[in-house]
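Recall the central idea of this unit: under ordinary conditions, the amino acid sequence of a chain determines the structure it adopts. In this exercise we apply that idea directly, starting from the sequence alone.
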Amino acid sequence: MKLELTRKQYRRLLDMVYIGNWVLNSERGEDRFQDYDEVESLLFGLAPSEGMPSLTERWGGEIVPSRAFVNGGIHEAIADYEDAIFFDILAEDLARRDMHDVPIDESNYDELTTRIDEYMTEFELHGTDRVQIDRS
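Accordingly, the structure predicted from this sequence is:
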């Protein structure tokens, strides 16, 4: 396969590959998806020949994203995504809990979305400041 990219497109591809592999493997410990690590290594391995040697380094005999790359802002992008999605997931989980985790279909979908919207409004106004655990 041959893929032609501009340098800028290649650089963006490296960001996307890193983010994708991080999402898939960051919490897996030793049980990593090795084939994704291999693709990441392959693509980052091309960086020096594309004039971007500072983006890679060798670790354990493998080509990996360099510390400069990892510390260069990519995790801020991941954190922005996590911050945005956190409240969406929490609101839906709480709404489903409030509905006793019944299966959602067209008869109760509006109720679910109303509850989600209510939680999202709460989070927009107060974040998690008013979330409490009832210990009674």
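The radius of gyration is 21 Å.
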